[in-house]
Amino acid sequence: MSEALIEDLPSGPLDEYRKQSNFNWKSMKIFFEEDVECLGIKMRMWNILSKDPLFSRSHTVQTTEEMKKLAAKRLRRYLQYNFFPSDISSIPYKKRLRLMMAVNEGLALAFPDVSLKHAVGVALVKNTLATLGTERHEHFLEAMWDGKAIACIALTEVAHGSNTKQMKTTATFDKRTQEFVIHTPDFQAAKCWSGNLGKTSTLAILFAQLIIDDQNFGLHAFVVPIRDPRTLLPYPGITVGDMGEKIGFHGLDNGFLILKNYRIPRENLLNRTADVTTEGEYESSFSEPGKILGAALENLSLARVGIMQGSVNYLINAVTIAIRYGAVRKQFSDNGNDTEFSIIEYPLHQWRLFPHVASAVVLKVFINFFTQDYLDAVELSNTSDRLEEVNYLVSEIHSIICCAKPLITWTTQHAIQECREACGGHGYLKAAGLGDLRNDHDPTVTYEGDNNVLQQQASNWLLKQWHNLSTGKKIESPLLTAQFLANHAQIKKRKYRKADDFRNPKYIMDCYEWLITYIIEDTASTIQNFLSRGYSKFSAKNHVQVYRSCIMSKAYAELNALRHFWRKISELPSDLRTVLTNFGILYGVFNIDSRISYFYQGGYCEGPHMVHEVKQTILDLCGELKPNILGVVDALSPPDYILNSILGRSDGKIYEELEKSFFNNQGNSDRPNWWSEVIIENAPDFTHRRSKL
Amino acid sequence: MSEALIEDLPSGPLDEYRKQSNFNWKSMKIFFEEDVECLGIKMRMWNILSKDPLFSRSHTVQTTEEMKKLAAKRLRRYLQYNFFPSDISSIPYKKRLRLMMAVNEGLALAFPDVSLKHAVGVALVKNTLATLGTERHEHFLEAMWDGKAIACIALTEVAHGSNTKQMKTTATFDKRTQEFVIHTPDFQAAKCWSGNLGKTSTLAILFAQLIIDDQNFGLHAFVVPIRDPRTLLPYPGITVGDMGEKIGFHGLDNGFLILKNYRIPRENLLNRTADVTTEGEYESSFSEPGKILGAALENLSLARVGIMQGSVNYLINAVTIAIRYGAVRKQFSDNGNDTEFSIIEYPLHQWRLFPHVASAVVLKVFINFFTQDYLDAVELSNTSDRLEEVNYLVSEIHSIICCAKPLITWTTQHAIQECREACGGHGYLKAAGLGDLRNDHDPTVTYEGDNNVLQQQASNWLLKQWHNLSTGKKIESPLLTAQFLANHAQIKKRKYRKADDFRNPKYIMDCYEWLITYIIEDTASTIQNFLSRGYSKFSAKNHVQVYRSCIMSKAYAELNALRHFWRKISELPSDLRTVLTNFGILYGVFNIDSRISYFYQGGYCEGPHMVHEVKQTILDLCGELKPNILGVVDALSPPDYILNSILGRSDGKIYEELEKSFFNNQGNSDRPNWWSEVIIENAPDFTHRRSKL
Q1: Which residue in A50, A319, B244, B364 has a CA-CA distance of 20 to 30 Å to A617?
Q2: Of the candidates B163, B187, B663, which has its C-beta nearest A332's C-beta?
Q3: Where on this chain does FAD bind (chains A, B) (predicted)?
């Protein structure tokens, strides 16, 4: 692992805090980057982009139309650069995917719209074609590999998102012409939100109800040409457009699509799992069930894994900005003293920010190493013939993702807001970067599975394991994330004792196991109670979301994150391990505190002692972590070109940057060209002294 | 009270829910509006503005420069309209202020940038001149009344916001020329963030350290001409400009200002409280101490009261959008059934939104009636000669505001985010309105006193009352907000019993009194502990913020809000009172739940019962409130022209509006004019069938 890759940080007002840290931040950086090759490929890309004027990071104001144009041009240029090694196609699957993910992470940090245009328009479509298509779709796939098409994925409809089964778009087989007739029955069935669809994509992977002779065979995927690639004009029968302004992601052209009896060849059905014969017979093909499961996992989850990686990077950016600003910004002094304190010295400010730094630390390590588990699972499902095991593995990975994506994206969303507030007024400047982080991050909590809906899926998996246990079956948890439930009788007997030590990672994990076990049992019995009162299963499950299933999912997600974290940091040299252990503990106790009422409700503790200890541990840790906080943030953070915040610069020269920003911004100091339209007639000139007094 | 003022709501998909409510929403609306005159003046304004093309509510994309121009032109037009009654100057103080506030509220809801330009550039400056200035500043005041000047208030500096004492701008008296020489020593002392300063204001009320013969007499206010009103060009010696792009409030030109030995006449010092004689003598004038206190209260607090009013209105807008959308949007059905449920039917969705509706209800009533207390206090302080009483009153009002502004603005901020998420993907559209609400509301949590700093001031006041008690002095609480502390011995003895009823407003208030008493006592003793360990008072107070002072302030703010609420609704007819009581209870128990750990920590309860009851009460209330939720939102919400959300329309026709929005937006369906710059060369045309298979 070469630390030589990493440049020293510039000297400045942050030196005072950097000197206090007692570990090598470059070694820690390499640990956070997981893989020196992944870091290398990103740094090469950043270096090249930083010299390309098309990728300059200005805070100049642009119209949405200009941002869309810029994103489209950047995507073209990005594809031309081709940052992957020339032998990328021969690199083994896992390594290849990891490198591709690293490049995507590096791009998404600075150019989220370009990254998303690429992810949905190239990467995901390639993947869908490769996994749901067959040899007859190779010409599409080839075109994607050669950069000859930008596509989009058209699933969501105006009136249906989460409930995909109720999609109304139909694909009716016409045996006479051997075509599918794609049709949008009304505006509520218009496809929408598809990235690239608004202005630029020429192909769509479209999901529609497959109809043969009035029989509905359910949702299937079709390749639908929508625009002429030579003119970018839509084909007849296609109504397509941009959805208009959004809260963020301004460069992404999210579109809508209405098809009026639009015909595509029969072969455009992606027929890996099912096909329609020339005779109009529907045929399922379950010849390779493991592969189908793997493909399903990959298609469902790849985007979510990417969202989690990107979200953690946004979290890192936010805390980097707020911590560096907090170290430089001084305000108030002790009585009669003129020397003001850096605001990071105040316990309240530490408490507002350090738990978010702890989240960044734990979740960065988690998502790195969970990505490996995920890729292992995909690989195994593509090669193993032990169907049951693959089935269990796919379900478990799915449940981990379904609770981790909400955990990570909500954590980041809250952290960005707190960081913006912790930077005070200056945090409200666009050039601080926090507004764009918040607005571009915002959709992650509702897209690729609404967080609340995903959490329910994770809790369903946990409840199934609980049900298995109570009916004498085994827990289907090949990754062992739920194996502890087998121990439920012992776990439930645990009680808080005064000697329990929140500084002990093992004890924190014990608390989590108790909490999850308690909530699962309570949830399962509450569901039973509803069922016995005549509620349907659907309704009963809806009635246990609040205070039960949702909390179960969140706690399970945190348990998974911490488990990966402890395991990974155990391999580190002691200086790094010691520092990181404290961040892990802060993460754990902070989250335990937010659910402390369950420990009382479930009889785990009584009296004031546990809650007092938890809160005191948090306060103590905030104080103890202060000397290392700058170093940890330096190890997490990307270079200035990528961070692009006047408040978060690695040299700490925030006032110099503010000054430049005020004076260099186009037109800031000019009289507006509309001045004559707003001056007030006969306004007095107050520079003339009055003789009144 | 005439309900005839209020139009019926249009029929549509919301009828189903509207029919379920069991009260007259128009009567409730009049209650929420407080005063039929206030409602009338707003409706008249809205009616006029809605017909003026300059005030059209389009979602058309504009550059920041265009938005600044538009805001400046709108402000001019708004001043020309003059929505106040012609006899405004003869209306008694309280009534006059309330009407002015109503107009401001009405404007701020739809045109926050125009409202803020007016508030800081006209209203606050007028007020400052009237209260801090004397007869020698009448020509300035006249000009403001006549709409002949747009000013700004220049207090904050680049490196100092909260700590005003450390401002570095100086105003040095030059006896020879009878002038003050205003000087900005370095960029960190540049004035910044002043609204209107960026592009348009011609005058500044500037705060600077007053220096005479090297002696610093502290911060004083001066009138400083900065731009020539005939040309809008800055005067020599003035460097002024716009701060550049922000997260929101795009129409407001926040500026910076650097003065290089810039001279103003001696008379431009606002000399109500202190003056400098022609001989260079500094003279305090304490001739009217009550008035001075009143003036200070008015100047400090008027802006904060306005922020709270505006923030509650934003909260109302956000919940209106999400509740109406949730009633129309359907997703998922019970097994084997095609009829999907409105998402508002799901307990989780209710729990996500209804507590925010409860906040809107309670805080709207609170801010209306607290505004009366505030105006009474200002009036009393201007007329009373009982100095001690006025002093206490001013302090108490200040403490109520210092905790209410954080409570309200944070509540709104969280609610807007939840509402945006509860509207799913469509909530991410600009036309949904939630993004602009969030971005324009965002600065309220850090400006006019950072929320965390303000909270500390409120807790200091409470601690002072506690100290009074423990030293045998009386509680200085003429408004009786802290009078309950006198009862502390009894309050501390309270314990939770199973018979306690969370449906009883009185019991909720008992819980609050216990909570605040417990935290104050704990905080006071912890401060003593720190002091005895050698901490300075400053440091000790900083160490009790987390988990103590902050929580104390929040709970005290909620107690004040609920107290006003119960008192006011007690005057209502029983149909309204019954509904509103339940919203008040939901507000109370929801917030008690979020601090339940203190009840365990302080020994108020033990075992599972209390937390279980609290949570169950919340869940039950959500279910019970559902039939009335639409009606309450209708009673709270402004007309569609003001709400301006495709998802929140009063006719519930969200899909029709989405369709219009997709098709009517300029350029949505056009090929972009940059199409030829991004097409891919030699891209295959996939509409030509392949003969491959």
Answers
A1: A319
A2: B163
A3: 156, 195
Q: Give the pLDDT confidence of B557-570 residue by residue, as tens digits.
A: 999 999 999 999 99
B655 vs chain A: nearest CA distance in angstroms? 7
Calculate how close chain B gets to A625, using CA atoms only, in Å. Answer: 16
Contacts of A278 in chain B (CB under 8 A): none
Strand order in the sheet with B191-194: B191-194, B255-259, B238-242
CB contact under 8 A, A611 and B602: no
With a cut of 70, say whether residue A44 has pLDDT above it: yes
pLDDT of residue B63: 87
DSSP state for residue B246 in the 8-state scheme: B
- Chain A residues with CB-CB distance to B447 below 8 A: 425
Identity of the residue numbered A116: L
User: Which residue's structure tokens are 């309280």?
Assistant: B94
Task: Find the closest chain B residue to A673 by CA distance.
Answer: B69
What whole-number distance in Å separates Cα of residue A325 and Cα of residue A349? 12
* CB-CB neighbors (< 8 A) of B539 in chain A: 334
Q: Which of B448, B513, B558, B657 is catalytic?
A: B448
ipTM tops 0.85: yes
Are B331 and A429 inside 8 Å of each other by CB?
A: no
d(CA A107, CA A638) in angstroms, rounded, equals 12
Q: Is the Cβ pair A199, B672 closer than 8 Å?
A: yes
Closest C-alpha among A585, A572, A559 to residue A479: A559
Contact A219, A164 (CB under 8 A): yes
A160 DSSP 8-state letter: B
pLDDT at B273: 87
Tokens representing residue A675 in the block: 């001045």
Helix residue ranges per DSSP H, A384-430: 387-422
Task: Compute the distance between CA of residue A223 and CA of residue A262 in angstroms, rounded to an integer.
Answer: 12
pLDDT given at position B249: 95
Contact predicate B438/B455, CB 8 Å: no
CB atoms within 10 A of CB B501: 11
Q: How far is CA B374 from CA A562, B456, B479, B481, in A?
A: 50, 20, 11, 14
Starting from the edge strand earliest in sequence, which strands make up the sheet with A255-259, in order?
A191-194, A255-259, A238-242
Helix, strand and coil in chain B, % to nearest 5: 60, 10, 30
> Are residues A646 and A429 in contact, defined by beta-carbon separation less than 8 angstroms?
yes
Which residues of A belong to the annotated binding site for FAD? 156, 195
Q: Which chain B residues are Cβ-neighbours of A347 within 8 angstroms? A: 542-543, 545-546
- Local structure of A118: helix, strand or coil: helix
Chain B contact set for A672 (CB, 8 A)? 65, 68-69, 199, 232
Instruction: Give all domains of chain A, ordered by start, each with its CATH number.
Output: 13-60+288-473+500-659 (1.20.140.10), 126-286 (2.40.110.10)
Q: How far is CA B675 from CA A111, A137, A164, A463, B686, in A?
A: 21, 27, 33, 52, 19
Residue whose C-alpha is closest to residue B611's, from A546, A603, A600: A600
- Inter-chain CB proximity A446 and B425 less than 8 Å: yes
Dihedral sign of CA atoms A63, A67, A68, A70 in order: positive
- Residue of B177, B268, B687, B690 to mutate when probing chain A, most A C-beta within 10 A: B687
B245 with A430: Cβ contact below 8 A: yes
Dihedral sign for Cα B302, B308, B309, B310, please: positive
DSSP letter for A209, please: E
Instruction: Name the H helices within B34-135.
Output: 36-50, 64-81, 93-110, 112-118, 124-132
Residues of chain B with pLDDT under 50: 1, 690-693
Are A340 and B166 an interchain contact pair (Cβ–Cβ within 8 Å)? yes
Query: First CA to last CA across chain A, in angstroms?
Result: 78
